Amino acid sequence: MDVKILKLFPDFPQCDLTCYLHREIMPNAPARRAIIVCPGGGYLGLSAREDEVVALEYLNAGFQVFCLHYGVGTAAANYTPLTQACLSIRYVREHAAEWNIRPDRIFITGFSAGGHLAASAGTMYDHAAVRAAFGDAPTALGRPDGMILCYPVITAGEHAHRGSILALCGDPNADEAQQREFSLEHNVTSDTPPAFLWHTAADDLVPVQNSLLFAAALAEHGVSFEAHIYPHGAHGLSLCDERTWVGVSGMLSDEAAPWIANAIRWAKQL
Fold first, then answer.
1. Which stretch of 144-158, 202-216, 219-233, 242-256 has the lowest confidence by average pLDDT?
2. DSSP of the chain, one letter per residue?
3. Does 27 have pLDDT greater than 90?
4. d(CA 197, CA 152)
5. What average pLDDT does the chain have?
6. 87 pairs with which residues across the strands?
7. What's 187's domain CATH number?
């Protein structure tokens, strides 16, 4: 395995992409799928529990993996995380041959606010901010081929995680119209890539309605998806076991733990 940290974008010095890459030991090895991991943290920080430990799961499953450390806090405004995510997808796609990646199988996954970012890349990759950053390059280069959304923030409506939405607005007093720009159930189209979603019905921080609203929008537009709703479990379960529980018993869940195997199976079958 090769691990490298890339500072890709001079305009975003706070952003980096940590790469976890297989060293191919056989000539003409089949090209691999790739996935970009977006940790959560309410767009105010980045959770270590949803970062490298998750990347290694996908690496062990044969993916080339990239962890995106995107702008948070004041650096989350002006569609900055969205632009960084789409630029990162483009960068991976443009280096697919170098890293033995299938350019048509580049996934993005995220947890909580990172799930919002992953879903934003799938629904807003043609946003004006992305077009400005891409210049003459087509924004389709920044579109993921699939999204794996883990207890994602989705809506700016009744069931919003308000702190995440206001961080994106860059204004704690943002009005309803400003917040609605980041309500992703309204941004789904027939061009939105397929999705895998999971959530717990008991999540009391980012209500399960976030995933349900997104799934309903995908169904309305004929976009393929798989969704798993587990009855129990707190917000922020990550891998649901001793690798990510940090001594908090509520972060252990045998019930939800199969999500990662199901997500890998889904991505390999897509």
1. 242-256
2. -EEEEE---TT-TT-EEEEEE----STTPPPEEEEEEE--STTTS--GGGTHHHHHHHHHTT-EEEEEE---GGGG-TTHHHHHHHHHHHHHHHTTTTTTEEEEEEEEEEETHHHHHHHHHHH-TT-HHHHHHHTTS-GGGG--SEEEEES----SSTT--HHHHHHHHT-TT--HHHHHTT-GGGT--TTSPPEEEEEETT-SSS-THHHHHHHHHHHHTT--EEEEEESS--TT-TTSSTTT-TT-GGG--TTTTTHHHHHHHHHHH-
3. no
4. 8
5. 97
6. none
7. 3.40.50.1820
Cβ neighbours of 65 (radius 10 Å): 29
- Residue 218 pLDDT > 90: yes
Give me the pLDDT at residue 200, please: 98
53 burial level (CB within 10 Å; 0-12, 13-18, 19+): middle
Domain count, the chain: 1
| Owner of token pair 């395995």 | 1
Distances (CA, A) of 5 to 20, 66, 69, 117: 9, 9, 10, 20
Burial class (CB in 10 A: 0-12, 13-18, 19+), 26: exposed
11 CA to centre of own chain: 21
**Whole-structure pTM over 0.90, yes or no?**
yes
Task: Encode pLDDT of 77-109 as tens digits.
Answer: 999 999 999 999 999 999 999 999 999 999 999
Domain containing 233 equals 2-269
